[in-house]
Amino acid sequence: MGIVVQKYGGSSVADAAGVKRVAQRIVNTKKAGHQVVVVVSAMGDTTDELIDLANEVSPLPPARELDMLLTAGERISMAVLAMAIQNLGHEARSFTGSQAGVITDAAHGRAKIIDVTPGRIQAAIDEGAIAIVAGFQGVSQTTKDITTLGRGGSDTTAVALAVALEADVCEIYSDVDGIFTADPRIEPTARKVPRISYEETLEMAAQGAKILHLRCVEYARRYDMPIHVRSSFSEKEGTWVVRAADVTVVAQEESKPMEAAIITGVAHDRSQAKITVVGVPDKPGEAAAIFRAVAEAEINIDMIVQNVSAAATSLTDISFTLPRGEGQTAMTALSRLQESVGFDSLQYDDSVGKVSIVGAGMSSSPGISARFFEALSEAGVNIEMISTSEIRVSVVVAETQVESAVNAAHAAFDLGSDEIEAVVYGGTGR
To answer: Staple 137 to which of 21, 97, 203, 226, CB 3.0 to 4.6 Å?
Structure first.
């Protein structure tokens, strides 16, 4: 049989018992005839603990040394997992990101993968060994320094290795049984989605769903690598992330009405903030200056709304959302523009959240937005901003109303299950 790449999150290898359980699952996959490559995250909360340690030692840890420190977490995981596998009578070899051939740019803390040259990994599995690779890390092509890939880095490592090795599938293991129609911590009737397209998964992830990271899904879509999202705590079939055409074919084979797939799920994000630039002169170039300042501060913007200018004053208001952790940086950058642009003031609100409905079928189904907004209205949820794409409708609401909005949208589109399907085995998420 072919190559299977498996990635295990921190909650799956949080302690010795977890490591032994994962080792047994890996050995079972090997016994089934597969060549197995494993990517592993740091154990439990190790990465957070290392960050705390760095901050205690230095108020501003050097980026290069912080990367060197943080990669220690994954190196511990790969070594103890290899030991556990060998204790079960199978050969295992552990490799750091650089030894595995993960080549990146030089951006510490948020490096991007440039290439993967898995010669040593291929040699190991050709010789019958199980290869264990430290996720989240690589080596800079130019400086030869150790780098980390940032949030979702282990998922991205796994998919990149799967592509480079021409694997049959990339299995992403966490502490839930797959991708659900909503966060089961908020919506207890959330239903597991058997198959979902890359595009829908990208939208769900971008709108705050803690399933797979954007970079991981983008990589998989680019190279058509199937991802199987499942739990390391159970043997249940998970969720397959595949091409949209494959989702449609399966639905037709199972004689499911296509109307049932209009909405795939509801995502939410509580990490948003909103900035409003009040009294902007309505003339060419002013909006460009505002967003150029934000871009130069390396801040990603999500939603943007510009009001129609008042006839009496020719002034307008521009509102946009951004990650809450970058709010004060953006406010500082914009404050420097007040005199040159001539706006009246800045307003900052960090008590907002975003709720989105996602589904490939909505582009050909009239009335989806109306049903969504009616459901929110009936739940007493006030909408502050609206943004749409072909397969998504997102709204910004007060943070205190996020849960009500998720429940209302989930019920409005009949996404719930009659029985409890969602179990969070590890308790903390990936």
So the answer is: 97
